[in-house]
Amino acid sequence: MGQQTGRTVFFVSDRTGISVETLGRGLLSQFEGMEFNQIALPFIDTEDKARAAVAQINAVAATGERPLVFSTQVRPELGAILKTCQGLYLDFFAAFMGALETELRQVSSHSIGLSHGLHDEQRYDTRIDAVNFALSCDDGIGIQSYAAADVIVVGVSRSGKTPTCLYLAMQYGVRAANYPLTEDDFEHQRLPAALSAHRARLVGLTITPERLQQIRQERRPNSPYAALAQCQYEARQLQTLLAREQIRSLDSTHMSIEEIAASIVHEMGLVRRR
To answer: Same domain, yes or no, for 251 and 133?
Structure first.
């Protein structure tokens, strides 16, 4: 194993690890300036796999500071094995399950995979329908379907519109379209005709020129598209247009896709489709 800087963090789960990574990273985000080497160990669902995970954690512990181990284990026997590791073991389920069982006066099922399974087929179908809608109305296409959209995200190229719409679809079942505003729109300083009829469902994503240049530079290095002057022009014109048309907006510069999506749901008063 090569030399690493920063504290090592393991995310251990009996299934995909989505929940434990979300919870764990949320906690780690509160420790600004610290670096973390993040290692995911999903599908630890047998005793042999649990022992192998312990061995991997202990190998890291032997080379420096003890690692942090976030876990979501519903089976007590697997949790007991993992708890023997030489890291700081934090089991989210164990922390709350006992109190819930007491309050609800019922023993939990200890069944693996219920939170991400297909036990709610209608909710799953709703999310897939929303994803298909987002893909069919991405980047200005499918404008004939805008009447069926819950929200239409507008902004300049590379401001986070597409991933935000897909996240809204996957996590909230929200039908989200997105439309790129271009130099032609800025020249006329008015909304494109395709958007005017749907003003109430519009939300703009603004971004600082410096962050926009950084993102575009990764996509098209040293191109006019990524030039700081171009980014400054587009960012300034976008804010002017949104203000003139009185379109609500969010500054996406320092926000994750998850935060942008949650803010849109809150600001627009959208309801998660189940």
So the answer is: yes
Low-confidence ranges of the chain (pLDDT < 50): 1-3, 116, 118-119
Angle between helices 18-28 and 92-104 (to 10 degrees): 110
Q: How many CA atoms lie within 13 A of 222 on its CB side?
A: 0
Tens digits of residue pLDDT in 49-78: 999 999 999 999 999 899 999 998 888 899
Q: Give the domain extent around 112.
A: 7-116
Strand partners, 151: 176
CA–CA distance from 31 to each of 28, 36, 169, 205, 228 (Å)? 6, 10, 30, 27, 32
Q: How many residues does the chain have?
A: 274
Token pair recorded at residue 120 = 């709610």
Q: What is the pLDDT of residue 1?
A: 43
CA-to-CA dists, residue 101 to 92, 96, 164, angstroms: 15, 9, 37
Global pTM exceeds 0.85: no
Element (H, E) at 204: strand 202-206
Query: Same structural domain for residues 149 and 41?
Result: no
* 258 touches 164 (CB < 8 A): no
SS3 of 23, please? Answer: helix
Cα–Cα distance for residue pair 7/127, rounded to 1 Å:
36
CB 67 within 8 Å of CB 61: yes
Decide the pairing of beta strands 249-251 and 202-206: parallel
pLDDT number for residue 162: 95
Q: What is the pLDDT of residue 16?
A: 83
pLDDT score, position 152: 98
Identify whether residues 112 and 158 lie together within a single domain: no
